[in-house]
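Long-time lurker, first post.

We've been arguing in lab meeting about whether zinc ion would sit comfortably in this protein at all. Half the group thinks yes, half thinks no, and nobody has a model to point at. So I'm putting the question to the forum: if I give you the sequence and the SMILES, can you give me back a predicted structure of the complex? Inputs are below. Any interpretation is welcome too.
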Amino acid sequence: MVGLWSDLSVPRRGWELIDVEDLGCDESDFKLCEACGKKHVRYVHHLRHPSYAGTVGVGCVCGAKMQHDEGAEYIGRELEKRLVRRDRRRRTWLTRKWALSSKGNVKMKAEGWLFILCNRGRFWEAFLKPADADDFKYKARFATEAEAKLALFDVAFPNKIAVGAGQ
Ligand SMILES: [Zn+2]
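Top reply:
Settle the argument with this. Predicted structure of the protein with zinc ion, as tokens:
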């Protein structure tokens, strides 16, 4: 694939970062940087420009070059670091201590969320709600306990962080 830079009508500078997304550790899911067309990236930085239709997905180095604002630090670096920390937490998520209720349900409170898993026999039902609210944010069924736990993690801590989103 040839990158955007081979098209001379594409603006070189003044791009704005929208978000950074973690495609996961499987290299076959990595995407080719749309700017240079050379590097396969795991952490995709999405940027937009007022004189370009749509968004582009690029690596951190190209993202920083495209923003090219001498006065401002490229925030994409920090967002990528946050996603690296998130991935580390996800890898130990299943080994964390979950409380077992008398009914056989599994629960855990973490970072403002309440995670609940109910063993329904043939499947697991997973619930997520803010620890201080009554409304459920998410509810779904899974074949295994591990799948259910990871799904709840991904809803509570998404693999994509937008510029300006809280910690
Ligand atoms: Zn690139």
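For your lab meeting: The mean pLDDT is 92. The pocket of zinc ion is lined by residues 33, 35-36, 39, 58-59, 62 (CB under 6 Å). Whichever side wins, do check it experimentally.
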